[in-house]
Amino acid sequence: MPDWLDRLAARAQRARVPRYMRPPARGGRDAAVLMLFGEGALGPDVLLIQRSTRGRRHAGQPAFPGGGVDPEDAGPVEAALREAEEETGVDPAGVHVLCTLPELYLDHSDNRVTPVIAWWREPSAVHAASPDEVDSVERVPIAELVDPGNRIMLRHPSGMAGPAFKVRGMLVWGFTAMVLDSVLREGGLDRPWDDTRVEDMPPGMLNLASRRS
């Protein structure tokens, strides 16, 4: 396992949870996502999926593999690995889990999400293994994520804006972009970028994001 990932995991665990993402005292569905880092042909990378536009929640959004914690799961780590296998075909036997991050709350879907950071010790072939849920799977190089030319602030019609990444034909925003931005920064992998570069959320993306059923 590379030293940079060890440092990233240690520092990311100490990152502060934004007030608006702190879980409520009660309620919410337990969920988990897998932040799977590996070493690809273009250097360090992270596994992302493009969710299906036919989905009920977070339709069409780039995301980490993941989903709800089922009753038979031992916890968020097992759930994240199971979901990643179901969605991308990744072999859990080749994945080394480093740590979990503090639980984050997504109000739109009422999910209490635990991010799981892992190292892809033995990479396996991946694809959109669950077509009803996933349109595509990408190993996105860290170098492309931290390239200042690929970074913007994305503004919602409400006026709120958050970090976003333009990579591999995807616009990564919302929860996934916030977690990536925080983890890469805490791990010392980010590069200075112009956070005054603001773009409005595309209307089609807004329509998908507002879908609840």
From TrEMBL:
Superkingdom as given in the UniProt entry: Bacteria
SUPFAM superfamilies in the cross-refs: Nudix
Keywords attached to this entry: Hydrolase, Magnesium, Manganese, Metal-binding
Disordered: annotated segments: 54-74
InterPro entries reported in the protein's UniProt record: CoAse (IPR045121), NUDIX_hydrolase-like_dom_sf (IPR015797), NUDIX_hydrolase_dom (IPR000086)
Cofactor: Mn(2+); Mg(2+)
PROSITE patterns to which the protein is assigned, alphabetical: NUDIX
GO molecular function: coenzyme A diphosphatase activity; metal ion binding
Keyword Amino-acid biosynthesis: no
Residue ranges annotated for the Nudix hydrolase domain, each copy included: 27-167
Pfam family, one: NUDIX
PANTHER family: MITOCHONDRIAL COENZYME A DIPHOSPHATASE NUDT8, NUDIX HYDROLASE
The name this protein goes by in its record: 8-oxo-dGTP pyrophosphatase MutT, NUDIX family
Lineage: Bacteria, Bacillati, Actinomycetota, Actinomycetes, Streptosporangiales
